[in-house]
């Protein structure tokens, strides 16, 4: 697993670089083909004739085709720009592996592939499995999202190979994520000669931003965070344009939809100048009810494997697991690497825990394959 992790981390794969993504995809294709004895289907990309579109992901469909598969989901893109390897190459010290994407989530992919290979080696056959790897999760899955949803709808359950929460805890719930870009249109004028001729878009937007606060819930469960703003053209011009981006997190679908309506209403009531809202709900929440069945099986699997139960957590970040849950599919997330520092320079994976995580994924896949999907 360590050799494969080295190979995969050493092929940089920023979401925005199609050439690098394609190269990393072929490294993963070789690793998976060697381990599983079968070439994957290369999924359609947003490829243009110039080759500057996002390449499609990979899918290994294994085992009996007549039965709904257990879906294993991951992504090969990372948030790290090309060249990160030069100052932070793949490295192992004691039981810590470091390098861009080592925790989010290349170790999870390696563990998942080895889990299936080991299952085949022990039983002589594959359970019904779909191993799906996307290429644009870190930018909101514009290409991979619909594919994840489609496979989730057809699957027995979804196991998401994203990195674990602290200490290896599984992720039984994720908040939902919405984002908005609100822009206000005013009228430009010279700030010294005739300021009264102008309509100040910045002042109008500022009034709106301070009121957005009241949409967040007092207990901190639902958050509304203005994140980026811009206005104006020069130092002495009344700004004719201003815009702000808003990040919204909500614990359940009802809260997420309620907040979407409340935000639109607040803007309509507050803005005095013409405005536009783009964006909306991006990922619905992964709610605890979606995870309950697989979480119970995971608990039993830890016992059977003689491993200490690491607990499970609800987290604020989103993943493609949100999409699996939204498809009504039993879903458990955080089944990938034990480590930490996702999206941070100190990102690391505990390599001593890689075998147990692979064993867990293998056990869960086999268990789910042998159980009918609950009505
Ligand atoms: Zn990830």
UniProtKB/TrEMBL annotation:
Cited InterPro entries: ArgE/DapE_CS, Bact_exopeptidase_dim_dom, Pept_M20_glutamate_carboxypep, Peptidase_M20, Peptidase_M20_dimer, Peptidase_M20A
Highest taxon listed in the record's lineage: Bacteria
Active site annotation, chain numbering: 77, 137 (proton acceptor)
A molecular function (GO) term: hydrolase activity
Secretion signal span: none
Location of the region described as Disordered in the Swiss-Prot/TrEMBL record: 39-58
UniProt domain Peptidase M20 dimerisation: residue ranges: 173-271
Cofactor: Zn(2+)
Keywords: Hydrolase, Metal-binding, Zinc
Protein name per Swiss-Prot or TrEMBL: M20 family metallopeptidase
Organism name: Streptomyces bathyalis
């Amino acid at each position: 697993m360590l050799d494969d992790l080295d190979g995969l981390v050493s092929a940089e794969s920023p979401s925005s670089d199609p050439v690098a993504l394609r190269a990393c995809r072929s490294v993963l294709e070789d690793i998976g083909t060697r381990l599983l004895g079968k070439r994957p289907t290369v999924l359609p990309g947003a490829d243009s004739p110039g080759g500057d579109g996002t390449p499609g992901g990979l899918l290994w469909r294994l085992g009996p085709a007549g039965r709904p598969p257990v879906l294993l989901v991951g992504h090969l893109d990372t948030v790290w720009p090309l060249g990160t390897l030069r100052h932070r190459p793949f490295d192992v010290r004691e039981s810590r592996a470091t390098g861009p994407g080592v925790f989010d989530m290349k170790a999870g992919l390696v563990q998942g592939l080895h889990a299936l290979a080991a299952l085949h080696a022990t039983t002589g056959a594959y359970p019904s499995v779909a191993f799906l790897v996307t290429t644009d999760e870190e930018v909101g899955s514009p290409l991979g999202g619909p594919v994840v949803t489609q496979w989730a709808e057809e699957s027995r359950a979804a196991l998401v190979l994203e990195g674990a929460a602290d200490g290896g805890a599984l992720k039984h719930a994720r908040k939902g994520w919405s984002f908005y870009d609100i822009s206000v249109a005013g009228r430009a004028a010279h700030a010294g000669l005739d300021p009264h001729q102008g309509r100040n878009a910045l002042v109008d937007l500022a009034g709106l931003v301070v009121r957005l606060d009241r949409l967040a819930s007092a207990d901190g469960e639902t958050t509304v965070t203005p994140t980026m703003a811009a206005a104006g053209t020069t130092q002495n011009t009344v700004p004719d344009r201003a815009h702000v981006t808003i990040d919204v997190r909500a614990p359940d679908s009802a809260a997420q939809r309620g907040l979407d309506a409340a935000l639109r209403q607040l803007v309509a009531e507050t803005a005095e100048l013409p405005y536009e809202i783009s964006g909306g709900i991006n990922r619905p929440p992964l709610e605890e009810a979606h995870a309950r069945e697989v979480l119970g099986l995971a608990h039993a699997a830890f016992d059977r494997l003689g491993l200490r139960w690491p607990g499970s957590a609800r987290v604020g970040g989103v993943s493609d697991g949100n999409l699996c849950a939204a498809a009504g599919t039993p879903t458990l997330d955080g089944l990938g690497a034990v480590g930490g520092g996702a999206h941070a320079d100190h990102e690391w994976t505990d390599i001593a825990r890689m075998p147990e995580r692979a064993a867990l994924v293998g056990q869960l896949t086999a268990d789910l394959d042998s159980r009918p999907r609950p009505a």
